[in-house]
């Protein structure tokens, strides 16, 4: 006799603990499961063994994505997130979504519910972008740009193709990871918010309306390097003075040109020379441009280029700028959002709809199939750091909402 499926909190905690048995970094107190590292591949193998022990059909695809499938033939409801981390990452980013996905399958099966659609638990490869993209979900969606795989390198200059070969994956077969849209009914992901919005609002559940686009503007200001003592102040062409003017104006551009969700960040700056006694002749820097609106992203880039031209003219500098990469904003599926909101409501929670400022696998999966993203709060908005934390009670609520929505999609 089937009963109501329920999250087993201890079992979920044990599964999350099992994942975080890999890649602990005593130096930082966080986790290092960088894509295709020993720890990353070890956790993938362990997760496959764990799912196999549960009776799921497991496989690793040609780029390292791990799947566990259960249920009848037909288009699958895919659930999951990623197992890789940034260096010195936290215990929840990605890992929580993978653990909740498998716990939901366990709960549904334990309750004896018959699956109307198959469920596939998915742990994607290189979501954190060691090689600059979201290799796993991009490959599944067939959205890897031509030539990208062969050109991609990590921050240390290691080519992606070399890293793949080192773990036994053949880059020549990467295209085989692409799924046929006819085989995938939907994708659901649970993730920590990685921002402060839910905590500030006192809410446990967020449902993402969409995911901000992200563009990288790479720019240089070029003046003249010279002696800090002999060059009069009015005879300098100081690239850093020009840059300072640009950086100071960036928040105003976000406020005046972008939407309320606009985020502009100057996160990389390199001065040449970078010496105490020399006027910096050159400044290379990037501006990360994020917004939920494509047009607003383009207008902010236009405004930044105008600003660069004005600051250069005032300080006798030349400038170059170019958009180095561009990811469009993505709208998530309205019907799936509604079903997550309804599931939360039926459990007595008060969810909020909100955009996602950070990139997630769901944005790639949305190119393939209807996709949705559920958030639980991040204490202090902290993530990508060992201090990443979500109250267990909030995790339990998020998992219960996820289970309810998944049950409705696949088992009712
Ligand atoms: Zn993540």
From TrEMBL:
Entry superkingdom: Bacteria
Organism of provenance: Acuticoccus sediminis
Protein name as it appears in the record: Zn-dependent hydrolase
Cofactor note: Binds 2 Zn(2+) ions per subunit.
Cofactor needs: Zn(2+)
Entries under NCBIfam families matching the protein: hydantase, PRK09290.1-5
The entry's keywords: Hydrolase, Metal-binding, Zinc
Annotated residues for binding of Zn(2+) 1: 82, 93, 191
Family: Belongs to the peptidase M20 family.
Binding-site list for Zn(2+) 2: 93, 128, 384
């Amino acid at each position: 006799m089937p009963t109501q499926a329920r999250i087993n909190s201890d079992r979920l905690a044990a599964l999350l603990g099992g994942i975080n048995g890999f890649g602990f970094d005593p130096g930082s107190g966080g986790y290092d499961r960088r894509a295709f590292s020993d720890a990353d591949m070890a956790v993938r193998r362990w997760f496959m063994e764990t799912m196999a022990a549960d009776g799921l059909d497991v496989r690793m695809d040609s780029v390292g994505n791990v799947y566990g499938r259960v249920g009848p033939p037909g288009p699958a409801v895919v659930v999951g997130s990623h197992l890789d981390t940034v260096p010195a990452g936290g215990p929840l980013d990605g890992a929580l979504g993978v653990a909740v996905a498998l716990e939901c399958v366990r709960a549904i099966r334990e309750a004896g519910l018959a699956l109307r659609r198959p469920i596939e638990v998915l742990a994607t490869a290189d979501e954190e972008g060691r090689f600059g993209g979201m290799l796993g979900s991009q490959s599944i969606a067939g959205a890897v740009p031509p030539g990208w795989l062969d050109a991609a390198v990590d921050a240390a200059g290691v080519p992606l193709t070399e890293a793949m070969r080192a773990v036994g994956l053949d880059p020549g077969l990467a295209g085989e990871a692409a799924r046929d849209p006819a085989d995938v009914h939907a994708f659901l992901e649970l993730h920590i918010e990685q921002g402060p919005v839910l905590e500030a609002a006192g809410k446990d559940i967020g449902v993402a309306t969409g995911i901000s686009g992200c563009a990288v503007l790479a720019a240089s200001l070029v003046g003249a390097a010279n002696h800090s003592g002999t060059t009069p102040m009015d005879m300098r062409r100081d690239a850093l003075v020009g840059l300072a003017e640009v950086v100071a104006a960036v928040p105003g551009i976000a406020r005046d040109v972008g939407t309320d969700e606009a985020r502009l960040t100057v996160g990389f700056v390199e001065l040449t020379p970078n010496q105490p006694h020399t006027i910096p002749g050159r400044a290379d820097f990037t501006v990360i441009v994020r917004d939920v609106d494509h047009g607003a992203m383009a207008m902010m880039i236009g405004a930044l280029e105008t600003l660069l031209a004005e600051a250069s003219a005032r300080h006798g500098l030349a400038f170059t700028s170019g958009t180095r990469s561009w990811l469009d904003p993505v709208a998530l599926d309205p019907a799936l959002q509604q079903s997550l909101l309804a599931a939360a409501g039926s459990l007595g929670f008060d969810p909020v709809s909100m955009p996602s400022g950070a990139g997630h696998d769901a944005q790639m999966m949305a190119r393939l199939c209807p996709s949705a993203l559920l958030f639980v709060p991040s204490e202090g908005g902290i993530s990508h750091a060992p201090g990443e934390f979500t109250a267990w009670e909030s995790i339990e609520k998020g998992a219960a909402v996820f289970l309810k929505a998944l049950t409705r999609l696949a088992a009712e």
